[in-house]
Amino acid sequence: MVARTIPVQPFDLVVFGATGDLARRKLLPGLYHRLQAGQMPEDARIFGAARSELDDEGYRAMAREALESFVTKDDRTPELVETFLNMLHYVAVDASSDEGWSTLAERLGPADDGRVRAFYLSVAPRFFGAIADRLAGSGVITPDSRIVVEKPLGRDQESAHALNERLSTHFTEAQIYRIDHYLGKETVQNLMAIRFANALFEPLWNARHIDHVQITVAESIGVEGRGSYYDQSGAMRDMVQNHMMQLLCLTAMEPPAHFDPDAVRDEKLKVIRALSPMSPTDVARKTVRGQYRAGTGGASYLEDAEDADSATESYVALRAEIANWRWSGTPFYLRTGKRLRTRMSEIAVFFKDPPHSIFTDQVSSLHGNALIIRLQPDEGITLRMTIKDPGPGGMRLTEVPLDMTFADAMGAKNGTKVRMPDAYERLIMDVIRGNQTLFMRGDEVEAAWAWTDPIIAAWGASGEKPQPYDSGSSGPEDALMLLHRDGRRWREIAS
């Protein structure tokens, strides 16, 4: 298989928060790899913008260290590194004052030069509005400009709406890119290809044939180092409302009429609006919250959050239902948590058992077919099948996985491994191309908050604290009961 790289047009990218962790770990290495792949033109310009008093050479030195830390030695050639570093520039700006903005405008040059301008806001959300205002005030926004904002996009529906309103003062909806790096993962996009480019699964992709769906995002690390920030959000705001909601939408949405940004996002929005709302009684019965205890060499959540009375959850499990013809009666179980047994993200689609089995003596030991879409750490797809156990001695059935790991199945080329692009690489190039398919629309964000806000409110009104769970475990015991009551069980979070 030959990967096709389509170059993008010359552009200017301004990264606010250019000295931060995301820029060092993901954005700069990702841009370097796009140059290496021949997708980014050498006359593209990348401007770092932050409060630190650096010049171009100082920023290039910082970027060189980032490449040495986060790009493999085999991928770094001296000539290409120098070419990339020469594309970098730096402007000291202050989002809370007028300092540096005229310099940024001067260095970007005329607003009618025809180049795409992208402004990436890798900063705290409280600065989004101020930066948008000052971009407009300094005259650097062009008709072909785009603004990229990271989550959290508000902390409830009201604040998300206010943010959308403020951004729309200076940018049209077509210019606003709300980034969710999960949507840039190869496997997530392959979920759409599997469903809509193959006749095999789509006829079965409904409540008649699918028993239930499990979506898991497990992390082995805690919130150490960012406990005070995380304690203001929790797992529901940090993961469920955005990342997991997007995975749910892509799994459950109807086929769009065309593969274009608004058609895809229209169908995702329909899924969110079809989610059955949860009353306080539903919240008590269909959701579980947890906090990790100390263990496996780490502190407890309460210690990491520096608040012994914190009622913020580091774990959430819930049972969601989609009230439409395709999915009526098919539950979607979502779970996410910190300090669990291992790091893994997957979507598991469990099909119903055959309506009649002729192998009656072996049915109890077998499970139905399941399609497992792995997002991390090893992106790929597994289809669990039942076959005859090889050998004489009668008809003995066994389960086997049909496994495709993308790095193995698609990465081999001429006897070597082809590197799979990071999600941020793909998404940044989509920004430059003006392709919003993998980005959230404003009404999507607000609709997701409209569903999660009552759950968060019910937790607060109950006065109950999250259930403690052991670090290195699969989460609270009540999360197991959430499925046991339905006669089902979670897939193992395997270490």
UniProtKB/TrEMBL annotation:
GO molecular function, one term: NADP binding
Keywords, sorted A to Z: Carbohydrate metabolism, Glucose metabolism, NADP, Oxidoreductase
PROSITE patterns reported for this sequence: G6P_DEHYDROGENASE (PS00069)
Ranges of residues in domain Glucose-6-phosphate dehydrogenase NAD-binding: 14-190
EC numbers: 1.1.1.49
Binding site for substrate: 181, 185, 219, 238, 338
Reactions catalysed according to its record: D-glucose 6-phosphate + NADP(+) = 6-phospho-D-glucono-1,5-lactone + NADPH + H(+)
Record GO cellular component, one term: cytosol
Domain of life (superkingdom): Bacteria
Pathway membership: Carbohydrate degradation; pentose phosphate pathway; D-ribulose 5-phosphate from D-glucose 6-phosphate (oxidative stage): step 1/3
Any one biological process term the GO annotation gives: pentose-phosphate shunt, oxidative branch
Broad enzyme group: oxidoreductase
Domain named Glucose-6-phosphate dehydrogenase C-terminal: residues: 192-491
Binding-site list for NADP(+): 17-24, 51, 151
UniProt keyword NADP present: yes
Active site: residue positions: 243 (proton acceptor)
Function: Catalyzes the oxidation of glucose 6-phosphate to 6-phosphogluconolactone.
Family of the protein in this entry: Belongs to the glucose-6-phosphate dehydrogenase family.
PANTHER family found in the cross-reference section: GLUCOSE-6-PHOSPHATE 1-DEHYDROGENASE, GLUCOSE-6-PHOSPHATE 1-DEHYDROGENASE G6PD
Official protein name in the record: Glucose-6-phosphate 1-dehydrogenase
Native species: Paroceanicella profunda
